[in-house]
Design a protein that fits this description.
Oligomer: single chain
Largest sheet: 8 strands, mixed
Number of strands: 24
Distance between the termini: 62 Å
Radius of gyration: 27 Å
Structural class: alpha/beta
Helix content: 40-55%
Shape: globular
Number of helices: 21
Length: 607
């Protein structure tokens, strides 16, 4: 017996001691890097923009709709680096500033740096580049290869080049939806769906009860894909002078994939090597450095030089972000919009005399709480009574995201925004049989009333089903009525375009769900004009400041990694797996009354 105790102790002690030693070594390495960063930071020269510089849009960073709330959100423990992240406001502002900066002679687009941006963000970046060209300065693009999103951005350039052995991914837009019905049947999980009969397009429930798309969902997804593809074709056609039919045919037969074919089609100007592109920059006016290369300044570094250049005016436009799924609560977290917290920001903007108008940037697919959306809607109504309020729609402004947008004086949507989805649903899973038959877990208990134990451990009865449907129908009736009031549309018309159907930003303008197509810059201009301050205003972003600890860690880790010469690239595959888990409502136990758009609709990503 004593010997058994000794063996058990050794089995626990040595693995524990090994773990402690490994932890001590890793901690020491981290502190060595931090110390190196501190020493290195004292010797870092400030960034200066030299005469004859080319602004480089290389997408080495993510460009997001809103600022990160926490600098630790994208901290990569494998490389000990925070990801580089820029906001759309920063990126577009820098491009617009560069147009009048005499030190910047042009823009070079090489969008293969590994960063990400949504379709709506790429659309707005592209529009900023088009405005830059009005200055008379050059814009050229060069990459080893172009994804479809990268080419869409690069097509705004005066001339586009590719490496002779590269390729151009040009094949149209598709949507693929995963269905879990067969898996749930195999596991013995029963699914109960509560959806108004008037919401046949509210397809977020379909993956759990069907094995393929419904006719309604297939119809709306087809229309959405075709609308976005038309936007891309029209804009590339206008920039490159190639007929839309020719561009569409190239996607059909993949004839633009090889660079030489793309040159013949006119999508690419020439195939050249990097050293030849370097020479080209010199002929365009870029200044040469001693090593023979030409002066470049990446977008993120250029932005850092503009921090102290922003002016201040007593006339302020508040820029408030609603970025992520809408939930109940009063807190801040990246990727989520908490109803009470957002309502508080809108209330502060309403009562601040220095704020003359408000822009709400909505990038939300809706949420797990119709209640949270309603809390925000009320504050939007109160705000509109005293100040102009403009909504700028990003990648998504659907379902609950549209609910909170409806009261605005003006709604500005990108052409590739996914919006609408005016509908509601409920869903509950019955795990009782699966737990019993697969895991041998059973439940027993007592209750005072028939529905006291209503949960995922059993199915719902007829009384409970009726009660839930009453709640679902009530939310849908409220949703459609508020849209009708906010958009000044007859309720009958709202019912025609609702039903849970998603629309592109282009179509949303045609049917009255949005007022005009454009980006954040256009929304800010409209807000300034409505407030009568177009000639003199500053922008105030409502954002949660990072804690002192987060700021300290961000500073030290970034300088430490640069000092150590570590690889700054991110682990994209790990991020993709994380996103699949976090964004999948089944894995996140999605249940209750929802105002959420159909699952995982991604028109395009830059990467």
């Amino acid at each position: 017996m004593e010997q058994g105790k000794k063996i058990g102790f050794s089995k626990i002690f040595w693995p524990s001691m090994t773990a402690v030693l490994i932890g001590m070594v890793l901690t020491a390495v981290i502190w060595i890097l931090i110390a190196a960063g501190i020493l290195y930071s004292f010797d870092v020269e400030p960034v200066r923009v030299q005469q004859g510089s080319v602004l480089v849009i290389d997408m080495a960073e993510d460009i997001t709709d809103s600022p990160r709330i926490s600098p630790l959100t994208d901290f990569d423990m494998q490389t000990l680096t925070p990801r580089k992240t820029l906001t759309l406001l920063e990126a577009v502002g820098a491009i617009e500033h560069a147009a009048g900066d005499e030190r910047i002679v042009g823009i070079c687009i090489n969008p293969s740096g590994g960063g990400t941006a949504s379709a709506a963000v790429v659309e707005e970046l592209r529009a900023a580049v088009e405005r830059f060209k009005l200055s008379g300065k050059f814009v050229v693009a060069y990459a080893d290869s172009y994804t479809q999103g990268q080419y869409y951005l690069a097509s705004a350039a005066d001339r586009i080049y590719v490496q002779p052995q590269g390729e151009i991914d040009w094949r149209g837009i598709s949507f693929t939806v995963p269905f879990f019905r067969s898996l749930l049947d195999r596991l013995g999980v029963k699914t109960e769906v509560f959806r108004p009969a008037a919401c046949p397009y509210k397809s977020a429930v379909e993956p759990y009860v069907m094995t393929r798309m419904s006719d309604e969902n297939r119809s709306q997804m087809t229309a959405l894909a075709e609308s976005a593809w038309k936007t891309i074709l029209d804009q590339v056609s206008a920039s490159r002078g190639i007929p839309v039919e020719r561009l569409d045919a190239a996607a059909d037969d993949l004839s633009a994939m090889m660079p030489q074919q793309a040159v013949r089609l006119g999508m690419i100007d020439d195939t050249i090597y990097e050293d030849e592109f370097e020479t080209l920059l010199g002929t365009l006016g870029a200044a040469a450095d001693k090593d023979g290369s030409h002066r470049r300044i990446p977008l993120d570094l250029y932005i850092s030089t503009l921090v102290q250049r922003n002016g201040y005016s007593e006339n302020t436009i508040a820029l408030i972000y609603a970025d992520g799924q809408i939930l109940d609560g009063d807190m801040e977290s990246d990727g989520y919009v908490f109803g009470t917290a957002l309502a508080s920001k809108l209330r502060r903007a309403r009562t601040d005399a220095d704020i003359k108008s408000v822009v709400l940037r909505v990038n939300s697919p809706g949420g797990g709480s119709a209640h949270a959306s309603d809390i925000v809607w009320r504050e939007m109504e109160l705000l509109r009574e005293v100040k102009p309020v403009v909504v700028s729609m990003g990648e998504y402004a659907a379902s609950g995201g549209y609910y909170i947008s409806a009261p605005a004086d003006v709604i500005v949507a990108d052409r590739m925004t996914i919006t609408g989805s005016i509908g509601v649903y409920g869903i509950m899973f019955d795990l009782g049989n699966a737990l019993s038959s697969k895991l041998g877990i059973t439940f027993d208990g007592v209750k005072t009333n028939p529905s006291a134990d209503m949960s995922m451990l059993r199915g719902v009865d007829a009384t409970e089903r009726k009660a839930i449907m009453r709640g679902v129908d009530r939310v849908y009736d409220t949703f459609t009525r508020l849209v009708a009031e906010g958009r000044n549309l007859p309720l009958e018309r709202v019912m025609e375009i609702a039903g849970g159907r998603v629309w592109s930003g282009s179509d949303a303008v045609e049917i009255g769900l949005a007022d005009t197509n454009g980006g954040l810059s256009e929304a800010l201009a409209i807000a300034a004009d409505k407030a009568g301050i177009a000639d003199d205003y500053s922008i105030y972003e409502f954002r949660m400041p990072p804690s002192p600890l987060e700021t300290w860690i961000e500073l030290l880790t970034s300088t430490a990694v640069e000092a150590a010469g570590l690889d700054m690239s991110d682990m994209t595959r790990a991020g993709m797996v994380r996103d699949m888990i976090v964004e999948n409502p089944f894995l996140a136990t999605d249940r209750g009354i929802q105002t959420l758009m159909p699952l995982n609709i991604k028109l395009m990503n830059l990467r």
